[in-house]
Every structure is written in structure tokens, then in C-alpha cells.
Amino acid sequence: MARLKTGTRLKSVVCNTQVMVVAAPDADVDCSCGGHPMIDAAATPPEGLVISPEAAKGTTLGKRYVNADGKLELLCIKAGEGSLAVGGVALVLKEAKPLPSSD
Amino acid sequence: MNLMMLLEMAVSGFGDRVAVRSGTEELTYQQLFDAAGAAAAAFEASGCENAALLDVNSLAVPVGLFASAWAGRPFVPLNYRLTDAEIEALAERIAPSFLVTSRERADALAKLPRTTVVAREAFLPRVFGKPAREPSWPMDPDAIAILLFTSGTTGAPKAAVIRHKHLVSYIFGSVEFGAAGEDEAALVSVPPYHIAGMAAITSSVYAGRRIVQLPAFSAEAWIETARRERVTHAFVVPTMLGRIVDALEPLDAGLPHLRALSYGGGKMPLPVIERAMRLLPRTDFTNAYGLTETSSTIAVLGPEDHRAAAASDDPAIRRRLTSVGRPLPSVEVEIRDPEGGRLGPERHGEVCVRGEQVSGEYLGRTSTVDREGWFPTRDGGFADLDGYLFLAGRIDDVIVRGGENISPGDIEDVLLEHEAVADCAVFGIPDEQWGEAVAAAIVLRPGRKATAEDLQKWVRDRLRSSRTPQRIEFRDELPYNETGKLLRRRVKAELAGEIP
């Protein structure tokens, strides 16, 4: 369990998934991917772990994932086979509301 | 965070697509990534602290930007209109640096102290086709991504600081990854030393939209390139749009591929946007409001807003064509009075903005962002009931006449409605009785006549007498900067006899 800061990068210990925290609630959260807690992107993952079959729907590059109240938002910066969850509840894909191109 | 994250994602998502095209040369995302790695190695080997670019748009711009991020050095695009002496002064402030420039200038600047000067023509071949480098770049979100020197019309130029966290937050907050179709192309004609030029690269890369570079702007070259390259998206400053519209009108052929045209960087004259919408009925128009200190766009007036305003008889909706739109979801905007109090709808004050993309910082100076994260833009304006933002010029340009605040823009709008007036600038001049008095510099249309008295009467009949210019001077032209911003303070200084 940890309090997340926006801009923090987390990675999966069982697949290639990496996310960046885009929005975080003011509370401790436990993010998991593939059924295992995620770790700081710079940390060394423990060996020998495998994806839980019930958390293997995969992540998509560049997509945003949110929890039920929308307070936690993760951006997938590297895709993988595991799926994201917080407190054991699967995160859902946030629907894109594209802004008009302004640059 | 690091800008390289954006390029790395693009490579994983669509590495074989063309990222950028300049003339007949092009780079895929993978090639851009590899070139950035090789250029970063050159920056590191030189011992530089800053990587500067003094050049028009070319492949060296995206390569230099991402290579700087890779090497953990600020990227410093310099204004190529500056003289060698002016460049020398700036080079001293960023030394030791690595400077990429055109071949012509490389010779003249070769002896700059503590500066590795390399011609673009020699630099690019050196970084192309190198084997891929192991990806590794610093992830400090507070590291400086870009330094942009202001034009410095008053005093020495200041360097605006854009950190990786600002620009990356801006992109993550406003662009959907890989959202561009394979046929989409964005025409970039703003110079690299303008924040819009930097934002265009980063957002196009993240969206997966091919960048088409125009080295130097002319309306004819812009139109020709837009047609030849089947350009679907573009950003222009108001002066550019004015010239494009002028050149397009007699051609009797539109821009069939252009889906979206965004504009910003200065006030858009209402007649120009109305003509542009008529000439390009199938193009979506977006007005983007932003500042260097906010890493580009903070508010947008989107295509639906444009169409609704143009079609409406309701003055409150119709006037939105002159609005800069509503804040991006990722930023907050407030209008404040001089004491910092928050003002409600329709009340004039200073536009203040807060958000992850807001830097509000100049190198070596105290941040202008307050403790709660609000940045005072020094832009005057107000918001309507629905949150549409209207700008009323720079607060520093406000004329204070006998305790009354007068916005030059209101008077300029009225003067421009006069059939003989082609261009004008309104500003304050010292006045013994009132503290400041209203003055105007006028450019007449060829073949048209109007006297100072005619124009004074014109303003007096439409605005209060306190708004009537006390002094009117006629000019052949007014000074503008590169991106079409009126250099009001220069006109003022000329009138006061400070500049011949």
C-alpha cells in the first residue's frame, strides 16, 4: 500500500506493462497488474512470478485506466499481458473525449 | 518524466510510420528515435550544458529536441532573425553549448567562446543511419526540457523555462495517444523558437500525425505545400491566416484535404476568421489560447463553437467568434482583480491559470506562480456565463487616463471599422493633466484618405470621449514581430522620440 503521486511510474512484475500515474486519490492505494502488486519502474522485480489467469486481459499502449470514482487514473506507457486492478477491483478503460487539435 | 517517453511510445505504437517530412527528406518514428540517440551522444561528448538550434524548420528541430531530452540537456531554439552580435550575447549565457545552425551562419559564428558550432548540413548526416542506442535518459521531472528566449523588446531577453513535467503533462492532458489516422499530416510553419513550434512537434509525435515542415512562411508556399502533401491539420498565427486567405481567395480552389486549422498566438481580427470560414467551409477551425509560460494551449474555441457563433443571431453567442474558448479540462482559469480577488462572469480582470503544464518561470528569476499554483498571465480579460474566455490585451498596455482604465484593443477595434484604416496601434502617452492620454498610430489603406479629426470624430461617435485619441499620427506600416504580434511599445517609443 502506498500513496501515489502524479508522474510516478509503476511496472508490472509479471509482464511488460508500465503505467504513469495521471491522477491519484489522497489515500493509500495498491495497484496490481496480472494479479501481483506493481512496483516502482526503477525497482528490480522479484523472479518466478506468473500472471494470474483472471488478470490476463492485457493493457493497451497509450490508454487510460480508471477506478470506479475516477480518482485514480493510470496511463499505459508500455503494454503487457496483465490487467490492471486496484484493491483487487479491475480498472476500466477510460473513454477518450478527444479535444480539437490545437497545435 | 522525460519528453523521450512520448517518442518511445510512438516507436512502440507505430514506429514504421513517417514522423516528419521536410522537403523530400523524411524520418520514421524509429529513425527519429535512433537519430535522437546518436545526436544525444554527440551532445554528451561535447561537454555542453545546453543544446541550441539557430535555424529554420528542418529535420534538425525534432532530432535536436528529442536528443536534448535524451542527453538531459535543455534544448534552446534561438531566433534566427537575431544578428550575430545578439546571438553572441545569448550564446554567452548558455555556454558551454552545442549549437546547430545553417551553413552560412556556422562560419560567422565559428569562433563563439565555449560553443561547439556545427552546420546542420554536416550534423544531420552524422546522426542518421547510426545503430540504435540502448534507451536510457534521465527521468527527473523537474529537469529543464526547453529554454525559450523572449524577444526582449524592453531590456535583455529573458529565458522562459519549460520543464519536462510541464510539456509531458500538457501532452498527456490534451492529446490522445495514436489518435491520428495514417493519412493525417500536420503542417508546421511557426518557427522553432516559438512555443507553438515545440508543442506542434510533441503533440504530433504523440498523436502519430506526420509532421510536414515549412522552412520559411509565405502564403504561397504554405498553400502549395498543404496541397502537395495533402495536409489535414495546421496551426497558424493570425497574420499568417490573413495572408493565406488573401492568397486563396482569387485562386478559386480551396484546400480539399485540410480538415482542421487551429490558430493562436495573437488576436484574430474578426473579418479574417469570417472570411476564412467562408472560404474553407469544410475545415474545422479551432482557436487556441496559450502562452510560452503555460507550455502552449490552455483554452480552446472548438469547431462547433465556431459554427454555432457564426450561425447565431444572438449577440452573446455571435461574439464568441472573438472568444478564445474554454479552458482545457486539465487546467483551471480564474479572472482576478488587482488585489487577487476572484471575479465573476462578465467582470474584467487578469487571466490567471493553474495546472500541471504551467511553468510561469524565467531562468534566474523568482517564479511568478503563487503558493496555490496560480500563474498571473498579465493578459486582461473576462469570462461569459458559460465560461468562454475573452481577452482584452496585455494588462501592461492598459492606458490609465485620469484614473480610468482604457483598453487599447477596444479603440483599435473601432478604428479598424473605418473604411480608410488598414492598421492601427493605440497606446498611452504621458499627459500632464490626465497622467496618460490616448494616442494612435494609423496606417491608411492605399488610395483612401482620412484626417486625424475624421478619425477622432469616428471614435467619439462610437465610444466615450475619454476613449478618443488625443494624438493621431500616420505611418506607412507598423512594427510586428515574427509571429505577428504588434510591437506596441516600440510604436510608443518611436512616437515619444526614443527610437528614431
Q: Give average pLDDT of chain A, whole number.
A: 92
CATH superfamily of the largest domain in chain B: ANL, N-terminal domain
Please report the number of helical segments of chain B. 16
Shape assignment of chain A: globular
The strand line-up of the biggest sheet of chain A is 7-2-3-9-8-12
The major sheet of chain A is characterized as:
6 strands, antiparallel
Mean pLDDT of chain B: 93
Our estimate of the beta-strand percent of chain A is 25-35%
Radius of gyration of chain A: 13 Å
First and last CA, distance of chain B? 49 Å
**Assembly form of the protein:** heterodimer
Would you report the number of β strands of chain A?
A: 12
| Uncertain residue segments of chain B | none
* Relative helix content of chain B: 25-40%
What structural class do the secondary elements of chain A suggest? Answer: mainly beta
Task: Report the β-strand fraction of chain B as a percent range.
Answer: 25-35%
Q: So how many helices of chain A?
A: 0
Q: Strand count, sense and closure of the main sheet of chain B? A: 9 strands, mixed
